[in-house]
Predict the structure.
Amino acid sequence: ASVLEKKCLLNLGKIDVNIIGNEVLRDNFCDQEGRLVCLVCFKIMAPTEFQVFRDHLKTHDTKQLEKVSIIMPNIGRGGPGLKKKMLTESELEVKYANENNCLVCPTCHK
């Protein structure tokens, strides 16, 4: 599968920008110098001002934000573009292994 097939296009007006990871913001809103650029009004912010950028986007009307689409990693459990805690093999075994050393879901026990 191509890289684009593993991503999805979403309307910025329908996303809570507070839950989007910094990497997704960087991939979608950085110029060639790494600065964050609002695609609604073209205001430029420093490369590390992710929260300032999120707060700025919220000042725009939903109708304005609906005109902007962003590319996000494929949506999976936990939501799109969210930072997920990665566990090592040994951490998985300690946390989820049963008495037979098989991994078991704590919610459904399968």
